Amino acid sequence: MVFEVGLALILIAIVSVVAQRLKQSIIPFLIILGMLVGPHLEVLNFGSIDLTFVHSQETISFLGRIGILFLLFFLGVEFSVQKMVKSGRSIIIGGTVYVAMNFVLGLIYGLLVDLGIYEALITAGMLSVSSTAIVAKVLVDLKRTGNPETELILGIILFDDLFLAVFMSIMSGVLLGDTSSPLGVIVSVLISMGYMLLFFIIARKGPPILNRLLNITSNEVFIIVVFAVLFFVAGFSEKLHVAEAIGALLLGLALSETEHAHRIAQMVIPFRDFFGALFFFSFGLSIDPYSLLDAVWLALGAVLITIVSNYIAGLVSGKQAGLSVKSSTNIGLTIMARGEFTIIVAALGVSAGLNPVLQPFSALYVLIMAVIGPIIAKQSKLVYTGLAKIGIGRKELEKQRAKAKVRKGGET
Fold first, then answer.
1. Are residues 359 and 386 in the same domain?
2. Domain presence at residue 41
């Protein structure tokens, strides 16, 4: 058992190094690795070295669940409602436009392909949440952190994170609570929303008390206390039929306004990265590669909707913020990547016993978007000039070219 887990970690490390050398997100690489060496193919067995991970899959899956907790706990600690409100009206409007457009189109798409109402809601959630990690990496890699649209991009991502917390809380109540009657569903949703509201109140009113309780000089004791509370809250959340990942996210939100938030975040990062890698690998292990064929057209349709809706949402958000068409194009194309949170939303639906096609659908959708998202963002200038030829931003482009000619003439 220990040898199998160690072997899995070696493979994860090798693939992570390869992804880093290729300057790509490790998420699609780890999912593909999991599928290739998982128990579904049953071909990579070399005597004492078994690469199908049949015996250790349950252990790796549990470690992956811990990865989800750390991913969402860190997201909560990094999040700040006050920061979002202070960031201005344009971010709130832009975030609302972005989330609403993706969610509505995702819901319509789910219903059109006849997945079922709950599956359609999960699909809408999958299409609505961008990958914070990939978007941040794209901004750094393309050296756009100083661009005029970057603040709005980060604001939209922040708003998207808030949407994820609300959506997951509501869906946890709907899918994991009492669904035997309409009243049972309403009660379950109210419990989930009340639970979330409690943590928002703690985040608002509790920092003075939390600051004193967490005033621990020893890093060893500090991390033990924080992690103990994290796992207790996650487990208690599950008892209330609220997804354990949401419990972790809400605890992070409660601690985000304390003076210890930065210290917590710095300590969590190594655990987030390590166990997060195990989560994506274990997700790949659970996917039957042959089942991807059943979700190809479903995933391709979702990819097309995501590309179109993100581009339009970027244009609308940028325009209302007074940005140029070029900057607005950068917004829509930069926030296009999908990753960890899309998989978490899909996992909620699968754990609730919904249509199993959600698993290969989410895997294929994330694989495609995690790869082409950064590529499209890198080619945003080409997209901008190409669309200008058909009228979108043509006048702006012509003005830019005219100014460039004047500058060039002045230099000569």
1. no
2. no
| Alpha-carbon 405 to chain mean position | 43
330 contacts 147 by C-beta, under 8 angstroms: yes
Considering the entire predicted model, what is its pTM? 0.77
Residue 398: pLDDT band (50, 70, 90) is: low
- Using alpha carbons only, how large is the chain's radius of gyration in Å? 22
Cα 167 to Cα 157: distance, rounded to the nearest angstrom = 15
Token pair listed for 116: 């079922």
Could you tell me if residue 322 is left (phi over 0), alpha (psi between -120 and 50 degrees) or otherwise beta? left
DSSP state of 177: S
pLDDT tens string 97-127:
899 999 999 999 999 998 889 999 999 999 9
Euclidean distance between CA atoms 265 and 282, whole angstroms: 24
Report d(CA 260, CA 255) in Å as an integer: 8
Token look-up 């990819």 returns 303
> What domain range is 201 assigned to?
67-372
